[in-house]
Amino acid sequence: MKILITAGPTREPLDPVRYLTNRSSGKMGYALAEAAHDRGHEVTLISGPVSLPPPEGMIVVKVETARQMYEAVRSHLGGQDTAIFSAAVADYRPVAKAEQKIKKTGETLTLTLEKTEDILGSARSVFGFTGYLVGFAAETERLLEHAHDKLARKGCDLVIANDVSQAGIGFDSAENEVTLCLPDASPFPLPRQTKAALARELIAFITQQAALKKTL
Amino acid sequence: MKILITAGPTREPLDPVRYLTNRSSGKMGYALAEAAHDRGHEVTLISGPVSLPPPEGMIVVKVETARQMYEAVRSHLGGQDTAIFSAAVADYRPVAKAEQKIKKTGETLTLTLEKTEDILGSARSVFGFTGYLVGFAAETERLLEHAHDKLARKGCDLVIANDVSQAGIGFDSAENEVTLCLPDASPFPLPRQTKAALARELIAFITQQAALKKTL
Prior knowledge:
Protein name (chains A, B): DNA/pantothenate metabolism flavoprotein C-terminal domain-containing protein
Number of domains of chain A: 1
Strand order of the largest sheet of chain A: 5-4-1-6-9-10-12-13
Number of strands of chain A: 14
Helix content of chain A: 25-40%
Domain DNA/pantothenate metabolism flavoprotein C-terminal (chains A, B): 2-208
InterPro entries (chains A, B): CoaB-like_sf, DNA/pantothenate-metab_flavo_C
Shape of chain A: globular
Oligomer: homodimer
Pfam families (chains A, B): DFP
CATH class of chain A: Alpha Beta
């Protein structure tokens, strides 16, 4: 099976040195890519800036901004059977990037941010993707409500809900604890485990579900 | 000699997952700390979030925000002979940190930023530091003008000017090329070299100059 996986944060520059980003380390996405590769899938990994070594045996596309990740997904989504969007793409970016480093002059600085491209939301509607579509919901409150909303609005087959407010799991942790949200099914919580073990479990589940979807 | 060194970027949170930061990798500051330790100095390293292994044989204080770095410097500056502020401290931070992850609702988002604490500028005036004071100026334009301005305004003995607009040197590069700016002297450019080699040269120079200052 051909699987596209996105991973890591994106960086949205204010000027040549400063940027907006988030606490995603890319560990979960890289673990998913390794697990998918180990299971014999053909993997394309589209990665934001992370400090992890690039995994072997797959196509790795490195990007920095949400716009670049959007373009990379658009280019590589054709022909994929499954897409797993685990990257923590910035929702907002500065409207303009200053050409030179902004000097520390005024007491305050007002920054206007605009929405970035909605990559997961574009998969069905813009890119015409018909394969098995997996999103992640990283939330700090009302986790399952946000996850189910995402599932419906973006046409996902599965949303993996991740409470990033808890210490020891989620962003930049070695372990993770997630809940699977599927259309017309109760939320299914998985036990807390290392990201590598969780990735193997998720890839096994996704492999089965994606195969099942093809037979429908 | 006792040397305090700051290194790395700072992160200024918008909410539990998003933050403002900059491209500093901490490599230059960590190389300076290693070089100072190798020369037999007693080193205190105050580091922002970096993906480098913590160096051996010195006190390492890890911080995240500009305010935390300010407090850590305030706590550790007493009794130091030399202070090298190589960290790329955020100049501005969001006025308020949202308790929960900001949801993607409006088309635009306005962020009000306020100035952070001026750590280098506080060394003499607030912390009463009388030792040898070294600042860094990381600029993308009018480098020496900014560096000399910093030298005078902040009471530095030395400002190390670093053009971060050039590819291959400065932030997140393995190599660096800097110019030494001293009061009442012409700018003194050093050749481009690895950060480790440059750190040894800078520590040798600073050791001599700091000893010289003590005899005055």
